[in-house]
Amino acid sequence: MKPITVTWDGGVHFTADIRGHKVAVDQPPQGGGTDGAPTPLELVPAALGTCVAFFVQQFLVTRGLDATGMEVQVFTAPAPNPHRIGQFEVAVSVPKGIPEKYRDAVRRAAESCTVHHTLTHQPDIAVEILETPVTA
Question: The pTM is what?
Answer without folding.
Answer: 0.93
